[in-house]
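Two quick folds needed for the group meeting slides. Do the first one here.
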Amino acid sequence: MNRSDAIIEVDGVTTVLDGHVIHRGLNLTVYRGEVMALIGGSGSGKTTLLRLLLGLEVPQAGSVKIFGHPLGRCAARDLERVRYRWGVLFQHGALFSALNVFDNIALPLRELNSVPDSLVKPLVMLKLAQVGLKPADAFKRPAELSGGMVKRVSLARALILDPQLLFLDEPTAGLDPDSAKQFVRLLRRLRQELGLTVVMVTHDVDTLFAVVDRVAVLAEQRIIACGPLAEVARLPHAFVRNFFLGHLERCAEDDLRRFRLSLDDTSDDGGVPALLREAEETHH
């Protein structure tokens, strides 16, 4: 890949919070269309790095560019334009308890006021179908949803503005194994259908095996390794050894390929009904 394909460029970043150095000289590049996972031990700076990428923190040194725009150094209006090109799925969903599913998903559309009111309903229902939920789910409150459904609704909201870039914070945390598998299968399908670039923070090895192209390891205040799973998993570093303990035999390319093929079935296709396809075509 060349620099022209770079969606995210983190160059020489140093981050200091409350007098503590979190990152020192950190570099990371994420390319168009790839799924990048950020892994690291507790206190390694994963969450802070994610906040830097979202423009919620500003580094003391170095630069963060997304879509070629330097975060923290551009006009507020330019930053807003960039933010509309990405979606975020927070670890616990961050749904508004006072709003039903429909209104939670519609919120970014209404805040931006970028589409006519007549298109809000078909667009919301389209995203609901894309994440494998039923039309009747639109009228439920967050308290009525299972953990897996909360993740799907949150994902639908993250996708409602048709972003090119998706940030996921521990996307399978709190899910039982079956729900986690279904959610990862959904991510695989949406990544292929929508051509998304994805950056995820995760500690779930199965999620890495299922969907990730490259893994970046945070340790010692920087990215100590970044590459394909099979390469990173064999890094002679204490955190990496412990993280992949018992899983090294699954990291070979043939084993990864077989595992991913096992996920590519149609039991959770979440297909888009014809009526919603028509709505999407009308929107475009």
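Then this one, please, same format:
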Amino acid sequence: MAKPNYQYEKRQRELAKKAKKAEKAARKTTGGPDGGSDLPDDGAPAPEGEVGSAAPGTGAPADGQG
């Protein structure tokens, strides 16, 4: 029976992690779907009145005054 090549498997895992990290960094810089755009979670543009709104349930006014 052949001996498993653990070094090769580890290297493949490291390369996969590196590629995933590079892809995430590229997405972040280009402003892709998960890259910090100003769209809400459902993908629809935010209404004008809710652009700077507070988090729901905080009791803070939406305009930041008060």
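Slide caption for protein two: The chain has one helix and no strands.
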